[in-house]
Amino acid sequence: MGLFVLAPLIGEYLHGNMSVTALPWLVLTAPLYGGGALLIREVARRAQRGWSTIFLLALAYGVIEEGLVTHTLFNPSYFGYPLLSWAPVPTLGMGAWWTIFVLTLHAVWSISASIALAEALVPRRAAQPWLSNRGLALAGAVFVLGAVTNWLATYEIERFVAAPGQLAGTTAAAGILVAAAFLVTGRRAEPVGSPAPSPWQVAAIAFAVTSAFIVLGWFPGWPTVVVYLALYAVSARLLARWSKRPGWNERHVLALTGGALVTYAWYAFPSQPLVGAGGLVDVVGNVLFALGLAGLLWRAARATRSRPSARSGAGRPTHIEQTDA
Predict the structure, then answer these.
(1) Alpha-carbon gap, residue 150 to 295, rounded angstroms
(2) Which N-terminal residues, if any, form the signal peptide (predicted)?
(3) How does pLDDT run across 91-131, given as a tens digit for each residue?
(4) At 193, is the pLDDT very low, low, confident or very high (cuts 50, 70, 90)?
(5) Which of 98, 116, 183, 254 is a Cys-bridge partner for 83, taking CB atoms 3.0 to 4.6 Å apart?
(6) In degrees rounded to 5, what are phi and psi of residue 75?
(7) How many CB atoms lie within 10 A of CB 125?
């Protein structure tokens, strides 16, 4: 239930897309975000897969939400914003900048960071399934319900439906990402090289990279697309190297998560909500969400510090430490 609520709170409220006055909209957003996050986590953990699988499934989730549910990948005027005019790809009827930007928001923050934070709060159960078969089926039904209701709500506002070819291409892209998620290596090799960097260093770099990503979003266009691709390449390289080093464990995963989530927290203040009241009440809400995040990160840090593997780094690595970053 914590993950079910965390996913929409992080995905829509922490970064300021929805104001605190729009909290009743959780009825609409939680089934989609929370149901999706639960499904992805359960499927990955039941298959004993790592973060590469979760990230690719989260990317597939973003493709489904933005391409099949809300259609923002193809809508030329979503909420009045000309999303497709920035780095346009006319043959596909899409915008390269918006596609990379919004899919990253879902893959990194809405799903992956939500799962990582929820697992860090209960580190002893982080690698275990949390749902029974019946619970998994229920989560799937809730997700489908959330997708349908969000589609209806978006259509009521936008009156836009993507072309059949765009919908077919989106479905194919999501399927390819799901397949790729289970073709990637499930476990990393034995640790090699110098010790992993400190969690604080990892958190600082994660904050810097994600903040750069967000700030660049204020300058949409082809130059930003190029920089985004470079950030992806550098980040993937760093994570691949760090996760192979001795001592890499759940504290480092939490550090990555914390750095990214703090970026979302500061981003809310210069942003204007798309849904809900702005002004002072929005600022107060942003403060409350940021304080809530700080409390959860503090609690998660205490929980992971209590793990013997996190304190000493000795002995056989746990499943969390073995799974790829």
Answers:
(1) 30
(2) none
(3) 999 999 999 999 999 999 999 999 999 999 999 999 999 99
(4) confident
(5) 98
(6) -80, 120
(7) 11
Chain centre distance of CA 11? 7
State both tokens at 235.
Answer: 């980040």
CB 282 within 8 A of CB 19: yes
CA quadruple 41, 240, 178, 256: dihedral sign: positive
Tokens of 197: 């960097």
Name the token pair of 183: 């073709």
Would the pLDDT of 313 be above 70?
A: no
Neighbours of 152 (CB within 10 A): 11
Give me the residues paired with residue 89 across strands.
94
CA distance linking residue 65 with residue 14, whole number of Å: 19
Residues in the chain, total = 325
Contact between residue 110 and residue 10 where contact means Cβ atoms under 8 Å apart: yes
- DSSP letters for 215-244: HHTTS-SHHHHHHHHHHHHHHHHHHHHHTT
187 pairs with which residues across the strands? Answer: 323
Tell how far CA 43 is from the center of its chain.
16
| Residue from 305, 200, 294, 284 nearest 20 by CA | 284
Mind listing the pLDDT tens digit for each residue in 62-94? 999 999 999 999 999 998 899 999 999 999 999
Quickly count: other Cβ atoms within 10 Å of residue 272's Cβ: 10
Helix residue ranges per DSSP H, the chain:
2-8, 26-46, 51-63, 96-104, 114-121, 133-158, 164-181, 199-216, 222-242, 250-267, 280-305, 308-312, 319-322
Q: Which two tokens stand for residue 40?
A: 């992805």
Tokens of 91: 């043959």
d(CA 91, CA 74) in angstroms, rounded, equals 11
Residue 118's contacts (CB-CB under 8 Å, 6 or more residues apart) are 2, 3, 6, 41
Neighbouring CB atoms inside 10 A of 162's CB total 19
